[in-house]
Design a protein that fits this description.
The protein is mainly alpha-helical. The chain has six helices and two strands; from the N terminus they run ααααββαα. The longest helix has 22 residues, at 102-123.
Length: 153
Amino acid sequence: MAGDGSVSDIEAHLGYWLRTVSNAVSQGFARSVEAEGVTVAEWVFLRMLYDVESIAPSQLAERMGMTKGAISKLADRLVEKDLVVREANADGRRGQTLMLKPAARQLVPRLAALADRNDATFFGALAPEERIQLERMLRRIARERELSDIPTA
């Protein structure tokens, strides 16, 4: 029977609130980076490359928790946008490496600033100690559930 109290209210679930906030945070960030001409997945890809001179697509796939095919498609899009270059391995073996082009090296800090502003917009309502506590709790849940894939959507 509807409304008899035997079914928990949707708002009684932490997952509901987490998803509500997560959707807003993700959508706000997606709009920001899309205004810069990239998707969130492309931003993550670029950010991962930013810290290395070059990387094999298979290593990047492993770090990002994505398939090699998904990395290849992202690389194709970023090569087309003139942000990434593919080169044959220098050691003459089969395979390629991925590197950021100068335009991407300039873009990544701007995108990181957008990520910082997005965090400030959504989590600025928390006191600094609350933010630290929330991050600790989320990290603990991720660790205990062995959640290691980098969110790209």
